[in-house]
């Protein structure tokens, strides 16, 4: 998330007397479904045979597509909750109501190019 985006959110929250909260999804990158077949060697100590591999069904830390898949998974969840993506930043979601605004900013890990 850009520093300017954070400053804007804090400024809006202060001027509108909104509450700021912070949450951390500690295993965020493990929730996303993979859209492709990815195989890996079995972890050490779990080998039945040297030729066995695992077919991943969910994302893992260390996969280059993991942050992007998490953003997609989270975005679908937020849109299902009737949030809208901000025009200012793709990591800011809001309900779009003017009087009682609910805004959610999502700080993502670095997305590789």
TrEMBL record:
Pfam families per UniProt? RVT_2 (PF07727)
Show where the Reverse transcriptase Ty1/copia-type domain sits: 2-96
State the superkingdom: Eukaryota
Q: Which InterPro entries match?
A: RVT_2
Protein name in the entry: Reverse transcriptase Ty1/copia-type domain-containing protein
Q: What is the lineage of its organism?
A: Eukaryota, Metazoa, Ecdysozoa, Arthropoda, Chelicerata
């Amino acid at each position: 998330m850009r520093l300017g985006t954070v400053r804007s959110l804090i400024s809006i929250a202060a001027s509108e007397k909104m509450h700021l909260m912070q949450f951390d999804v500690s295993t965020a990158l493990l929730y996303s479904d993979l859209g492709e077949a990815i195989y890996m060697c079995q972890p050490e100590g779990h080998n039945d045979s040297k030729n066995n591999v695992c077919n991943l069904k969910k994302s893992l830390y260390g996969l280059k597509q993991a942050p992007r898949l998490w953003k997609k998974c989270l975005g679908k969840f937020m849109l299902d909750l009737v949030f809208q993506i901000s025009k200012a930043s793709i990591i800011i979601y809001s309900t779009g109501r003017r009087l009682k605004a609910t805004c959610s900013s999502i700080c993502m890990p670095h997305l590789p190019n």
